[in-house]
Amino acid sequence: MKQIVLHTSLLMCLFLVSCASQPANAQDSKPEFRVTTKNADDKITVLDQESRTVIDIHSDFGIGSASLELVSGSMPTILLLRLHLKGLEEFQIISSQTTIAASVSSGQVFNIINQRVVSPDKERPLLMIDPLWMDINIVSADRDIPLDEGYFEIAVPGEFLRNAGDFFEIKWIDFYR
């Protein structure tokens, strides 16, 4: 009798562990965003690529902003922004809790000039070890700025996404217009 109880208990534990490893709404957890752009000419596409969400941004004018509201699913754990611009003088990602700003050099060599957290009372610089640090890269065969082809890819920090709620805004300025 002890063996049957032990066997049943083990099976029940395995079942509970397997259920706990996936959220109950796992099939419905893919994020769906309502995107509103400042400029009607800006084109933003939200893509689901494997286990990450990619927001692809084309801005011919080079100065713009967009608000993104999560209307269904869960906020992604991995969110990449792809900005098809020639340069990136200023970039901001804004939630009700946090504003992160970054700048990229305008010289021939790609260099992240600075990243900082901005609040109404103060600014503080970010270091690469900070959980709000954004990885910014150029995806192009030719990494010289101004970019003729390719894009800037920004990995939105998980810490930002966890605290953003269901709404955030992005702003960008391309210094080559």
Which class best fits the helix and strand makeup? mainly beta
Quick check: average pLDDT? 83
Number of domains: 1
Shape: globular
Strand order of the largest sheet: 1-4-12-6-7-8-9
The tally of beta strands, per DSSP, is: 12
Alpha carbon gap, first and last residue = 79 Å
The largest β sheet comes out as: 7 strands, antiparallel
Q: How big is the Rg?
A: 21 Å
Please give a structural write-up.
Helix content is 14%, strand content 42%. The protein has 177 residues and is mainly beta. It has one domain (29-173). The strands form 2 sheets. Strands 1-4-12-6-7-8-9 form a 7-stranded antiparallel beta sheet, with no helix packed on it. A 5-stranded mixed beta sheet has the order 2-3-5-11-10.
